[in-house]
Amino acid sequence: MTVDLRIVFSACLAVSPVAMAEPDTLPIIDAHIHYSHDAWTSLPPDEAVALLRRSGLTRAFVSSSSDDGTLALLAAAPDLVVPVLRPYRERGELSTWLTDDTVPGMLRGRLKSGVYAGIGEFHAFGDDVELPVFMEVIELASEYGIFLHAHSDADAIERIFQHDPDALVLWAHAGFEGPEVVSEMLGRYENLWADLAFRSEHALEGEVDPAWRLLFESFPDRFLLGTDTFTPERWFYVEDHASWCREWLDDLPPDLRRAIAHDNAQRLLERVGRW
Fold this sequence. Notes:
Layout: H1 5-14, E1 28-34, H2 45-54, E2 57-63, H3 67-76, E3 81-85, H4 103-111, E4 118-123, H5 132-144, E5 147-151, H6 154-163, E6 169-171, H7 179-188, E7 192-195, E8 203-204, E9 207-208, H8 210-218, E10 223-224, H9 238-249, H10 254-271
Parallel strand pairs: 1-2, 2-3, 3-4, 4-5, 5-6, 6-7, 7-10
Antiparallel strand pairs: 8-9
Helix pairs in contact: 2-3, 4-5, 7-8
């Protein structure tokens, strides 16, 4: 699957956002979607886009292994897809990319197109951040003014900000940490956001857990939704996940509900100067 970046960029500039959801449906931005090579045959781009629209998404942050999947979706729906550049050429590079000195050059070559809002989702933990490849990734994000989508522990997040206090970081899965640690991290770093992909303990049967409610109320502008389609099968959960999110979000005040569903992700995009 090969996509001309110049064509994609032109389309992205030419099309303005449109919402496909019904008027009474809470609009959602899903900040954690993958369209990797093992999904392309079973779910062609037009079908993937149709599924995202049926879910009532106004935007989807998409990253893929390889990046050609992201660009194919962007070409099919430039009003919907927010491209995020993953450092993996294929799924098997998840544990090797940090020692692959060809990765920064690959990323720079694609970032020159100007279509990407971030780098990630990548996996890095603890002192992985100190490796030369990761240092170059931090520098690239700073140079292009885009965010880092980090599947990382709290230690790695702290190290990113030690190297670049002005970095913009979207913490995938909120680090799989509990409310106390997430609260501490968000309180310490004003440029840290957290997605709730692959998390469910914050809500049960349409009611938000009290500890998570307090966290959401304390940091109303820092949480984003996400499905995480890390396998092809997860794509068929996107609609159900959006519906489930609307159920528990309905337990929150209107302003907070819309912030988590949509507005926080939109503000992050505004911080990177896109969309």
